[in-house]
Write a structure and sequence with these properties.
single chain, alpha/beta, Rossmann fold, 5-stranded parallel beta sheet, two-stranded antiparallel sheet, 17 helices, 9% strand
């Protein structure tokens, strides 16, 4: 039901992104004019921030400008044999660039050589082309080394090719510098200004424009969260919105993953030592306190796998994605206040104990204990989203 209500891209419903589109337009123009048009772009940003819509809008602009481009969606290859999948991708790039469909070769190496022989005789001598690879990081990683060796790596050094990679979750550790350390990151951010949230709702959910200020306070401008919350209203839509943000997780995993998110959402960061303590309170089951490190690690890996959490180098621990944490905590505080309070108290008690057990990091744990104490002292009409960062 949630999936059916998520809005598909439409040019007349697109809002803002002037800065990002200007950069993308400059790169496309450089490609067409033959001046340093090559390179690799990687779209990054939290769940629901608008990466898909930005790519779709850019793609529409390029189509109107008749810029040669090839679009590959790696979701099509889920569960497929990696060698077969990469061979099929090479064939698709060949046919999309008016090359042969059959007879490219007996193995990936030969297919790759023949593809590049075709490209260098045609597009790479004329005006180049743009290759979009979507859903990269949540795809089958066993396929990516082959895709790198036989397509992406040789393309990444061609002077008339622009590669755009996108997906959710942890970035794949490419061994080719042009795909890794030399790649250009395009960070898509939430709407920083209330006006953009208002404009979005005017175009996508006009019935909720009057609630734009409150929605923006809760979502901090995340477009998907804005839209989902607008569908049901700020008073009853938090449960719906959280389900929508988790809708990309298969249904048979989603309930448990949501429970893990709710158990950890009051924490500013977490690790395998804190996971059992919070699960024990969330499930009201002290046996979680006896978990081994490996059991807690599986929970952490599950959250990272579904791109709901990531490593924070500054905190030197894991953090839930901001929008996931915001909506989950607001939901608990509004719909399950006893559980929210119990989790806050558990975190306060845990950090207070750690100030004694870990003297070298006492100051850090004192700050965390103080933070949770402040959360518990807030009145019901105060927003933890506004107060906690």
């Amino acid at each position: 039901m949630i999936n059916a209500t998520q809005l598909n891209y439409s040019p007349d419903k697109f809002v803002d992104r002037e800065e990002e589109l200007t950069e993308l337009e400059q790169r496309a123009r450089a490609l067409l004019e033959g001046r340093n048009g090559h390179g690799v772009l990687i779209f990054i940003g939290e769940r629901g921030v608008g990466k898909t819509w930005l790519r779709a809008h850019w793609r529409e602009q390029l189509r109107r400008q008749k810029v040669p481009m090839v679009w590959i969606d790696l979701r099509e290859y889920t569960g497929k044999d990696p060698t077969w999948a990469v061979a099929d991708i090479i064939r698709k790039v060949s046919t999309a660039t008016k090359g042969p469909d059959e007879g490219l070769g007996a193995d990936l190496a030969e297919m790759s050589r023949n593809l590049f022989a075709h490209l260098r005789k045609t597009l790479l001598q004329e005006k180049g082309f743009i290759l979009f690879i979507d859903h990269v990081y949540e795809s089958e990683w066993a396929m990516l080394p082959l895709l790198e060796d036989y397509l992406l790596a040789p393309l990444s050094v061609e002077p008339r090719v622009l590669i755009a990679l996108a997906g959710r979750g942890r970035l794949y550790p490419w061994k080719t510098p042009e795909l890794g350390v030399k790649a250009n990151l395009i960070e898509v951010k939430p709407f920083s200004d209330l006006r953009f949230t208002q404009w979005q709702l005017e175009r996508q959910a006009p019935q909720a424009v009057g609630e734009a200020p409150e929605i923006h306070t809760i979502t901090r401008g995340n477009p998907l969260a804005n839209y989902l919350l607008a569908l049901r209203g700020v008073n009853t839509g938090l449960d719906w919105s959280l389900e929508g943000l988790l809708a990309t997780i298969p249904e048979d995993h989603r309930r448990k993953v949501r429970e893990y998110v709710e158990a950890l959402c009051v924490l500013r960061d977490f690790d395998e030592e804190r996971i059992p303590a919070m699960l024990a309170i969330y499930y009201d089951d002290p046996s979680y306190q006896n978990w081994m490190y490996a059991q807690a690690r599986r929970i952490r890996e599950e959250l990272v796998r579904w791109a709901l959490a990531h490593w924070d180098t500054e905190k030197r621990s894991y953090v839930l994605d901001r929008i996931i944490r915001d909506i989950a905590e607001q939901f608990l505080r509004q719909q399950r206040p006893d559980k929210w309070e119990a989790l806050q108290k558990a975190a306060f008690n845990l950090y207070t104990r750690w100030t004694q057990e870990y003297p070298r990091t006492r100051e850090r744990w004192q700050q965390e204990a103080k933070y949770h104490q402040q959360q518990l002292q807030m009145t019901p009409d105060q927003s933890p989203v506004e107060k906690r960062d």
